[in-house]
Every structure is written in structure tokens, then in C-alpha cells.
Amino acid sequence: EVETVRKRIETATKKEAKFCLMAAYLFCARASEIVGTTNSYDLAHNQTIARGPTGKDVKIEPFEMGDNKTEAAVFTVRTAKRDGKIRKIALPLEKQYEPWTEQLYSYYLEHENDKVFPFTRQKAWEYAQKTFAGLSYPIEKYNIHNPENPKPKPVKAHLKSFRTHALRHLRATELIETFGFTGFDLSVYGGWTLRSMVGVGSAMSRYAHLDWRRYFPKLLKKRF
């Protein structure tokens, strides 16, 4: 559950572990979108590029909707698997809506021009392994398709250890179930393509860069 995972993150003993996992969860992010270092193995094999932010990748912007006036911390995230396409993650600064926003914003400012999370995906995975020890989440049954074998290989439903990628799925589920996000909202927020979210073709992809103000009002929901 969301609150169980959040409590684990809050009690992480190492500061950089706490804020790394906090950012991964809040941004609905892949690990490579958070960390700032690619190890030698990744470089040698042309694998995933580290696209993590610097301390300058956040700013405060006002938001008004009718009589409602508030502020958002707008974080820049460079989307993996989409050539680093920039997306904006706007989070309410008021603690009644999101108690972690101000903490994460302050942590960014501490790093100025430096990488906020100057380590590899493997280190982020280690932090998750330690923080979420004993936690798991269900995987529904699915089929593995092999082009060389026309018959799909079934995989039974099972439990999987909770790690960094599970944070992305947990946040996406929360955004849908708690905050009423649509497929369009998720494509803007989490960096999925519109085809994967709502089944539309390339003609609609122009809308994937929609401004954060589209989804932000949905986040103005009190947590407590």
C-alpha cells in the first residue's frame, strides 16, 4: 500500500537514499531518470543513459484556478526511452496536499549545478532493496511472445520483490485511483506514449507535451 511504502522511505537511514526513492516515487520515474551516473558496463554496452537532474532542475511557479491560489514546485525530468524528452512534474508545495514536496525542493537546492543523485542505477537498486526488504507486490499472469516460436509461453501470477520500478507502478496506480488521472494525464506526467496509454496514434502525439497545469488541479487533494 502507498502509506506502507511512504513510511519505509521516510525512515531510510541514509539521506541520499531517502530522497532518491522519494523522487522516484513522486515523479513516477524510471531509475535512469533519477540517477546521475552511468557505470562503465553501461557505457561499454551502450545501455541506458543516466538522465538524472541537477539542483537547478526545479523552480517554484504560481497556480491559480478561480479563487484557489497556491504554488507548485515544478521539477524537470528527462524521460528515458524517449531520447531524454523533457517532462514537467508539478507538485503542490502545501503540505496538506503533498508533505514531501518542500523537502525534496530544498534537497535539490543544496546541489545547485551538481547532480542531485550522483550514483548509478545499481546503487539506487541497493537502496530500494534495503529500504523495502520484505515487501512484495503481485504480478498478474501474462504471456511471453517469442518471434521464433508462434506459441506464447505462459507465466503464472506471482509475487515480486518491491524495488525501484515498483515505485513507478505504485505511483501510477495512485494517480489513477486517488487523484483521478486519465491516460492523457499519465502520458504527460509519467512519460508514457499516448499510444501505450490510450491507444491513439502518432497524430495525437503532439498533445503529449501538454503543460503541467492540465493535471495539477487533480493533485490538490488533501492527504490527511
Low-confidence stretches: 199-208
Measured distance between first and last alpha carbons: 16 Å
Helix/strand order? HHHEEEHHEEEEHHH
Radius of gyration in whole Å, from Cα? 18 Å
Task: Tell me how many strands there are.
Answer: 7
- Mean pLDDT, all residues: 86
Count of helix runs: 8
Q: How do the strands of the widest beta sheet line up side by side? A: 1-2-3
Classify the beta-strand content into a percent band. Answer: 15-25%
List keywords for this structure.
8 helices, single chain, two-stranded antiparallel ribbon, three-stranded antiparallel β-sheet, 7 strands, 224 residues, alpha+beta, 21% strand
Compact summary:
The chain has 224 residues and is α+β, with helices and mostly antiparallel strands. Helices cover 33% and strands 21% of the residues. Strands 1-2-3 form a three-stranded antiparallel sheet. A two-stranded antiparallel ribbon has the order 4-7. A two-stranded antiparallel ribbon has the order 5-6.
Can you characterise this structure?
The chain is α+β, with helices and mostly antiparallel strands and 224 residues long. The chain is 33% helix and 21% strand. It contains 8 helices and 7 strands, in the order H-H-H-E-E-E-H-H-E-E-E-E-H-H-H. The chain has helices at residues 2-10, 15-26, 40-44, 101-111, 121-131, 164-177, 183-190, 194-198, and strands at residues 58-65, 68-79, 85-92, 136-139, 142-146, 149-155, 158-161. The strands form 3 sheets. It has a 3-stranded antiparallel beta sheet. Strands 4-7 form a two-stranded antiparallel ribbon. Strands 5-6 form a two-stranded antiparallel sheet. A hairpin with a 2-residue loop joins strand 5 (142-146) and strand 6. Helix 2 (15-26) packs across helix 5 and helix 2 packs across helix 6. The longest helix has 14 residues, at 164-177. The radius of gyration is 18 Å and the shape is globular. The protein starts with a helix and ends in a 26-residue tail after the last helix.
